[in-house]
Design goal:
The chain is built from five helices and five strands; from the N terminus they run E-H-E-H-E-H-E-H-E-H. By secondary structure, it is of the alpha/beta class. Strands 1-5-4-2-3 form a five-stranded parallel β-sheet. The longest helix is centred in the last third of the chain and has 12 residues.
Length: 102
Amino acid sequence: MFARVSVEEAEEMINSGKVRVIDVREPGEYSVDHIANSELIPLNRVLNNPDSLGEPGILLVCEMGARSAVAAEMASAVGLTEIYNLEGGMNAWRNKGKPVEK
């Protein structure tokens, strides 16, 4: 099971150090912009090896929230815990004026 979190909840989790941010978009998308200190693990890699996500406490991010939800479902299915999906993805993050790295 995973939890869907808002931009504000995600930002609070990131700032508190409670989660690692994993971006499941493709490298070209990630290179345009991403959340600071996020790690790129494209969705196809997650689907082939959900354990690549690592330890509990993971915030999954994509462009709109759908791909990261698939990744979160896969992670939950293999028994990973403390999995969170950013609702609305990077699109919502940007729309709220949150910082990005390029």
